Amino acid sequence: MNRIVIGSGIIKEEIIDDKVVINIEKDCNLLIEKDLYKKYEINVKNANLNLLIIKEDANDLEYKININKGNVSFNYVSVNSKNSKIEANLNKRKSNIEIYNSVIASNKVNYDILVNHNACDTKSNIYNNGITKEDGIIIFNVTSFAPKKSKNSIINQDSKIITLNDVNENEINPILLIDSFEAEARHAAFIGNFKEKELFYLMSRGLSKKEASNLLINGLLFGQLSICFNEKEDLKKRFFI
Questions:
Q1: What gap in Å lies between CA 187 and CA 176, rounded to an integer?
Q2: CA distances, 7 to each of 30, 153, 222 (Å)
Q3: Contact present, 109 and 131 (Cβ < 8 Å)
């Protein structure tokens, strides 16, 4: 999978103060790896976008995705970084987004995610997966808004935090603001450790407890990402816990 790197000059970017604006009108794959800007606005029109963001030891960042018909796969890998805000606006019929948010935290971090279903027949899936270590604390604030005009929309939130430390201050705050009786919405949340039976099953196949735990961690953080196999393997090697 060939990716266009934001900031490389290959794709047209409009810089407004501390924000970069990118307009997407044809199918493409983008990569944001360096926090060159504080704010990113990506406008998608009649196109499919696969976006991979790798944020390591980075400052507060904001992302806004405006979809005017099309499909966006928003893959976000954040390691030992500060707070993030993600806003997605589904502005026209057949506008869809999938957010795969994978977090490794050794400090306290907030992730504020908002998806606005501004039209009918829209779809959003939000998958938050976090690992805390050392002094890490993760707070997922996830809001999905569906006004009356968003009939036949599908809304899904699924958040999980696995604690590898002794700090018990993690939070998952799922908020569903649904004004349409014809929208379908659900959420799920889990904070805790891996189940013993999961570890036992892997250990019964000859793995040590550490190897089994690492396998589950890699599966949690990188297994769901909507990127190619080689990219997943590179991330596993780069951020091995």
A1: 8
A2: 11, 35, 25
A3: no
Contact 153, 125 (CB under 8 A): no
Residue 115: count of CB within 10 angstroms of its CB: 25
- The reported pLDDT for the residue numbered 241 is 66
Contact, 145 vs 168, CB < 8 A?
no
Q: Are strands 19-24 and 14-16 parallel, antiparallel or unpaired?
A: antiparallel
**Residue 113 CA: distances (Å) to CA of 18, 84, 147, 159, 175:** 20, 8, 17, 12, 10
pLDDT in tens, 107-118: 999 999 999 999
Quote the CA–CA distance of 84 and 64 in Å, as a whole number. Answer: 11
Work out the burial of residue 197: count CB atoms within 10 Å of its CB; fewer than 13 is exposed, 13-18 middle, 19 or more buried.
Answer: exposed
Measured in residues, the chain has a length of: 241
User: Is the separation of the CB atoms in 77 and 100 below 8 Å?
Assistant: no
* Residues 8, 16: Cα–Cα separation, whole Å: 17
Residue 69 burial (CB count, 10 A): 17
DSSP string, 107-148: SEEEEEEEEEE-SSS-EEEEEEEEEE-TT-EEEEEEEEEE-T
Residue 1 carries which DSSP code? -
Flag whether pLDDT at 161 surpasses 90.
yes
pTM: 0.94
How many whole angstroms separate alpha carbon 95 and alpha carbon 69? 4
